[in-house]
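Revision sheet: structure tokens.
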Amino acid sequence: MYFKEVRLKNFRNYKDGLVSFHPKVNLITGKNAQGKTNLIESLYIMSLGKSFRTSKDREMIAFNEDYCIVRCIYVKEGRENEIEIVISKKGKAIKVDGAKISKTSQLLDNIYTVVFSPEDLKIVKDEPEKRRRFIDRELCHLKPVYYKELQSYKKILLQRNTLLKKGVDDLAMLDVWDRVLVEYGSRIVGKRKEFVEKLNILSRKIHSRITNGKEDLVIEYESNIIFNEELSNIEYDFIEKLKKSRKKDIIRGTTSFGPHKDDIKISINGIDVRHFGSQGQQRTAALSLKLAEIQLIKEEKGEDAILLLDDVLSELDKERQEFLIDTLSDTQLFITTTEFDNLLLDSIKAGYVFEVNAGRVEKTLTK
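Predicted:
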């Protein structure tokens, strides 16, 4: 699977342009604020229908324009396919091979991308919300039905919290919201726990290779409701937690328990590196998680995910840079960098080098 080309119109600082890519490595160079990350972002939205940088689609529309268009050709199982996304002030329209789709969830199983940015390097030490977002983003790729369940849960959670803030006069109505919240929340917890268990097996092996067996990485799902692994037992535990916290929830106007409060525990040699790990350990753990994510997509979907490395190689030492590129030799890679590195170029066996300047992309080298 690989991107063949992308056309951008009124997308951030891209007025109108077409870029054709190499099936293997695409090294994108240029000074800061020229459009390198914008190009990476345009590819990412082809797989998930949204940006990894902003939750507001309108921010992707160029200044003083009413709409933007991103259209890509990608190759999957030897066949060319097309995705087009039009974003306007009225909303978002998506077409797959010329056919309009009504829900973003219908887009998720077409092309798989994994983005790795400096922000991802901080996923280990940042707040739990960042780690929950990491799980949710990847599960939407692996199980499109999860996207629907997550959206339903967020909507119900918002409605329950709105009811709590207004003051609960009708406890029967709160019981109704609780039952639906537990239904979707239990599915989310079950899928997240299964995902983290698989991720733990893969990332543990990868981390051992990176550190030459010196460090043992363990990833665990931390839930504030789960005591038993069977779905029916998760539902029972969840509803009991909501009952016990009801008075407190009414006073505070918010929901104290549920998957929106969960986290991932990340340990190296038995030490919780979220709080006590060195910067090097935290970054290596983040790298192991990302590589495990790609491997899991391969195992679950039978396809190599496309990796988008956004100005992240400069944050890794040479040894980890080489490990990353060597490990992903079968994957299409997009690498953005402000500094042209001859050692990095030497490590690339086949690919294109581009230079981005003020929203214009020029191919400068072919290997």
